[in-house]
Each structure stands twice: as C-alpha cells, then as structure tokens.
C-alpha cells in the first residue's frame, strides 16, 4: 500500500501554518488537544506513521486556533475495530477519525482520472479533509452553543462545504470534486431502505447534490461543468447562488462572532492565493490491504 493520504493532507494544509502560528498568539484560549492512537491492526501502521510524521493533527490543531476556546475540542486518530467512521463526542470534546475511514477513502478512489477530472488522489484526500472539517463543525456548534434550525448533520455538511470553497479555485475544485466523487460512489452502494431514510444523515445522493449546488452557487465558473454535463439538474442550479449565500450568511452571523477577526481575515487571504501541490513519500517496504 502506498500510504499517501496523510502526506497529501499535509501538503494541502502546509501553507496555513504560518498564519496559524500567528493566530495562536492572538487567540487567548487553551491549546487544542491531539492524539495519535497506535493502531491494533498492522495494516493501519503505515497510515499511523505517515499521519504522525507529517504532523497532520497538528495542522488541524493550528488551523482551528482561530476559534478561542476556554475548553477546546480536540482531534484524535484511532483504530475503530474495523468500522470506517468518524465522530465528535461532546462528553470529552474529542473528534475521532478512524484509520479505517482513511483506508476506505483510498480503496474507493478511482484508478485513473475520471471524466469529471477527479484524480485518485483528489478522491482519497477530499473526503478525509472534509470529514475533519465536518466533525469540527459539530464541535463548534457544541462549544459555542450555536442554534441550528434543521438537521445538525446537514448544517455540518454546509459548514464543511463553505470552508473548502474558501481555498483557491484550483484547490476548491479538487477537494470538492473528491468529496463529490466519494458521495456519488457511496450512493451507488447504498440501498434507500427504511434504515437509510431514518438515519440522521441525508442519503449520499442528497448530500452529493447539496454539495455540488453550494459549490456551483459559490463559484459558477469553476464548477460550470457540473451543470453542463448534467451532474446537477438545471432546475436546482438556478437557485444555487442563493443557497450558497444563505450558508455564507449563517456562517458569518453564527460562527463569525467567535472567530479571531484578524486571524480569520489573514487565513482567507492565504487560502485565496494558494495553489495546491501533492507530494508522495518514497515507496515503503511495508505491505497493507491496498
């Protein structure tokens, strides 16, 4: 297995570190805790080692220092007994992302670039980055007691999509494209049965359309092909600009007051100008499931 996912995440977040270190001084909250739990499954050892050596959790730790917190939430990577999952626990205020989830994202990535331009790396990286931000949204809702009208999972999806869209056009296209591919393939594997309809999450197909609509509404030129190629129905696309504005307004008014304003402004500027790069580590002698 080529354990590249975490290295790619590190490359994605690397340009934010200079800003984040400055934000640490501006934010008067306590440090955000992080934990790399050594995996029980030997197949996950390359993921653990690569994530830790590239200080991936430290990068999310620094990034979210723009939110000063007296009792901050934290980030954890751990094995989950074979279950590909991620969650936020309000009792210990810890976000856990499973090695199994990172492994699964890579396993379901395409073998080659898709007709929509999604690369194998995009499909592996995008869902993992989005999951960290999605769970961080749950944590922010909890820490700051943010009022939510509607399903919290939908609100977390919207915050994650909004955040990814603050990257430069190329990076936003790649990360959103990777998440969209992941949701589209999950939709093909998911049966719309009673349990699926009862789940607190939307169906994968619904989450796909919501994501690409917000993306198209935010950057119609960058994502014009999602309508031209029929990925997003034209009837839905007509209202996507307003959907994005609604999300942006909510983020500004509900989360904005809790941000360190100077740090957040500098972050937005750094994201807008950044061009993504992907770096692969040297091949490892270790073997794994992929």
Report what the structure shows:
By secondary structure, this protein is mainly alpha-helical. It has one domain. It is 55% helix and 6% strand. The chain contains 14 helices and four strands. It has a four-stranded mixed beta sheet with strand order 1-2-4-3. The model is unreliable at 1-27 and 273-290 (pLDDT under 50).
List the main descriptive attributes of the protein structure presented here:
globular, 4 strands, 6% strand, 290 residues, disordered N terminus, mainly alpha, single chain, disordered C terminus
Strand order of the largest sheet: 1-2-4-3
Instruction: Note the total helix count.
Output: 14
| Helix content class | 55-70%
Give the ordered list of helices and strands: HHEHHEEEHHHHHHHHHH
């Amino acid at each position: 297995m080529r354990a590249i996912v975490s290295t790619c995440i590190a490359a994605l977040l690397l340009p934010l570190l200079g800003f984040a270190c400055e934000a640490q001084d501006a934010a008067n909250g306590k440090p955000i805790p992080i934990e790399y739990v050594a995996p029980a499954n030997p197949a996950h050892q390359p993921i653990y080692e690569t994530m830790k050596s590239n200080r991936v959790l430290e990068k999310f730790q620094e990034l979210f220092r723009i939110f000063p917190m007296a009792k901050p939430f934290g980030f954890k990577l751990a094995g989950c007994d074979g279950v590909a999952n991620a969650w936020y626990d309000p009792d210990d205020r810890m976000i856990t992302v499973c090695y199994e989830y990172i492994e699964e994202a890579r396993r379901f990535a395409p073998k080659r670039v898709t007709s929509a331009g999604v690369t194998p790396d995009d499909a592996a990286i995008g869902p993992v980055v989005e999951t960290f931000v999605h769970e961080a949204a749950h944590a922010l809702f909890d820490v700051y007691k943010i009022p939510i009208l509607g399903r919290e999972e939908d609100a977390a999806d919207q915050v994650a999509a909004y955040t990814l869209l603050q990257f430069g056009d190329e990076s936003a296209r790649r990360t959103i494209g990777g998440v969209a591919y992941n949701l589209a393939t999950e939709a093909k594997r998911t049966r719309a049965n009673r349990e699926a309809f009862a789940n607190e999450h939307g169906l994968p197909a619904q989450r796909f359309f919501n994501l690409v609509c917000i993306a198209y509404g935010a950057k119609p030129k960058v994502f014009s092909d999602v309508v031209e190629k029929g990925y997003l129905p034209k009837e839905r696309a007509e209202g996507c600009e307003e959907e994005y504005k609604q999300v942006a307004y909510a983020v500004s008014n509900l989360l904005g007051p809790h941000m360190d304003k100077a740090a957040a402004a500098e972050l937005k500027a750094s994201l807008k100008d950044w061009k993504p790069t992907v770096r692969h580590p040297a091949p490892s002698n270790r073997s794994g499931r992929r």
